[in-house]
Amino acid sequence: MDELEFRRRIYADPNTTDSDVIEAAKNNEKLRAFWNEQKALDNQLKQVLNVSVPDDLAHKLIWQQSANDLARHKHKTPWYIGLAASVAFVMGVGVMSWVNKPVSLDVHALAHMQYAQTEQAHSPLPVDLAQVNAKLASFGAEFTGMIGDVQVANYCHLNMVRSLHLIMDTPEGKMSVFIVPQRNDVDIPDSFSDTLYRGESMRMQRANVLVVGDKASDLSEVKQLISERMQFSA
User: Fold this and answer.
1) What is the pLDDT of residues 139-182, one digit of tens each?
2) Which of 163, 159, 178, 160 is closest to 116 using CA atoms?
């Protein structure tokens, strides 16, 4: 093997174990010295390249790239787009808070009371026990007897909650009875009032009942009759 071929083989692989390369180095001190020099350089190069890599280097590089991208994006994005995004976020939080807020029915029951004097029954037939119970059936309830002089029995909505509205003529004046399905998102205080009317609520087995009358009226008799005569199906 000539010197040129020997050097080419050593440059290609300083740690070669080819027999003809080893044989050539044995017989030539100059070639042997060159080979040892190249081995030493190769070892030094490996030591320089053998740098320990931190375990979290990949995460740091990804974070840095994300930070750089965000900085470029903020630089390129007009200020009003960022403002619009912030406003949309705040509005979204507000809407979610409003949606999750319990539904309050007392104010709506008092508002319905203002029309009790003029509201007409949807049916031309006189309101009797059978008609009231037919409407109560959707709440899984019935009356075992009339609770008084019921003049109107109509379905209505209290703050979008479907309810049964009974308008009664009593010695205390006009009264409204609202039968409302029990729901976890419905908030009904035990008593409530405004400048003209007052109301009280009862939590029955499968429904809530609101009784509303004039500010000075006594609601206890109607509430007592409802408690005694309202039954729920199994």
Assistant:
1) 999 999 999 999 999 888 888 889 999 999 999 999 999 999 98
2) 178
Helix 19-26 crosses helix 3-12 at what angle (to 10 degrees)? 130
pTM higher than the cut 0.90: no
Antiparallel, parallel or unpaired: β 191-193 and 161-170? unpaired
Query: Can you tell me the distance from the alpha carbon of 168 to that of 143, in angstroms, rounded to the nearest whole number?
Result: 15
Domain ranges of the chain: 3-49, 57-100, 103-232
CA dihedral of residues 178, 180, 185, 187 (deg, nearest 10): 30
Write the class of the CATH domain 103-232: alpha beta
CB 106 within 8 A of CB 192: yes
In this predicted model, what pLDDT tens digit does every residue of 2-42 receive, in sequence order?
888 888 788 778 888 888 888 888 888 888 888 888 888 87
Alpha-carbon span 24 to 26, nearest angstrom: 5
